[in-house]
Write a structure and sequence with these properties.
CATH class: Alpha Beta
Order of helices and strands: EHEHEHEHEHEHEEEHHEH
Strand order of the largest sheet: 1-2-3-4-5-6-7-10
CATH architecture: Alpha-Beta Barrel
Helix content: 40-55%
Oligomer: single chain
Distance between the termini: 11 Å
Shape: globular
Number of helices: 9
Structural class: alpha/beta
Amino acid sequence: MIGLGSYAFLWQQSDRVPAPLGLVDVLERTRDLGVDLFQICDYAPLLTMTDTELREAARAARRLGIRIELGTKGVVTEHLVTFLRLAELFDAELVRSMVYAPGFRPSLDEAAALLDRVLPDYEAAGVALALETYEQVPTADLVALVERVGSDRLGICLDPANVVAGLELPRDAVERCAPLTSNIHAKDFAFARQEGWVGFTYSGAPMGEGLHDYPHLLATVQPEARGINEIVEHWLPWQGDPETTVQTEIAWTTTALDYLRSIR
């Protein structure tokens, strides 16, 4: 299933634009785009919302017919238990996380021990935990960690764009992670020469116009056959002013949805 994530609304929810969207606003925009899956990912207000606000957001998702996934960072037991409780509130079947969180970079041994502690709760609740590929943990190490823990509720959130900063090739990451992938972040990316030819900028691109060989990912991972959701994100730089940035973000989302639907 193709869904949208918080990073597809990054600027529209930012305080850099007039009247930023709230969580329920974003869910309504998602429904308007004909999408019925949304991943609330790295959305800081989620942890400061009152119980009433959380319940209202969960009711809005149900009213709109939108399935929810959640996303956070880190493997600290108490934090992942908090997100399991949130997953139960939102009827979410998946929580995406990362090995590292701000202020805590566990060794792989420490990460395995922490995951061993919390995964029985996830298994009992029927909620999956997906650890994202990114540059701070080599993909081979992430695969080894997931295999070592060995839970059928622990998998990988595959984001090939992230691994480039660790000098890995996206195609290699796709092939290495495919058997363990349980979630996908779908965005395109490209390099552009900086002014004066003094280096490159590695940033986002409209889906289908960058370097991401997404057909290869589809053929290798087979998300539709395996029931793996693909969550649209963007790496959209600020476009100089709020109106241009927001309109570009909206256009990129439409482009991504059209592209992903066209290549099935």
